[in-house]
Amino acid sequence: MVALGALQTLAYVHTAWWPLALLCMAALVALLNRSPPRRAAALAWAYGLGWLAAGVWWLYISMHDYGNLPAPLAASAVLALSAALSLYAAAAGAAYARWRRGNGFDAGLWAALWLLVELARGLLFTGFPWLSLGYAFVDAPLAALAPWLGVYGMGFVAAAVASALATPARWRAVAAAGGVLVLLQMAPVPRFTKPAGELSVVLLQSNVKQDEKF
Fold this sequence. Notes:
Elements: H1 2-8, H2 10-13, H3 18-32, H4 37-55, H5 58-66, H6 71-99, H7 105-123, H8 146-165, H9 170-186
Helix pairs in contact: 1-3, 1-4, 3-8, 4-6, 5-6, 6-7, 7-8, 8-9
């Protein structure tokens, strides 16, 4: 399950691989559908741990290479942060397993719970909004929703689609999810800005090494 969560982060690096994020989350939901609340919490926590640790590994470099923190402590700090933030996902997993009905209601339930996960992680205790699900879909049909719903709204729809793919009525769910994506792809993208003439810009970048700049 940790590996499945880590696999999802590839969609953030290679944005053309956005279906991978849907498939990974659909696999998680499929497992939650067969789990009691306590096991669902553990599965969602492990998924979140892999997803966050693989996505914020660069914090190790910041703390070890530039902050001179010993390597074991830096690695432990990254894991501890990921483990703590994954508690939100664990709570969502437990709530989903407890309240799911085994029908179309479940897609909306999981999407709502996932939205709460991302809002809590992004806003509470100063917030840590890195790796919100919507960022994986900047080159996907869901990007048409960005001007209207923002990254959290994109994550909500993506979670609903992923959950629909994991429902027992699989082919109907696949058809419905595919229809949503096709409609979004065909939707016109609104223009929120307009050209205002030429702008002269000068860019200056200093040649100071990262370990010397502070």
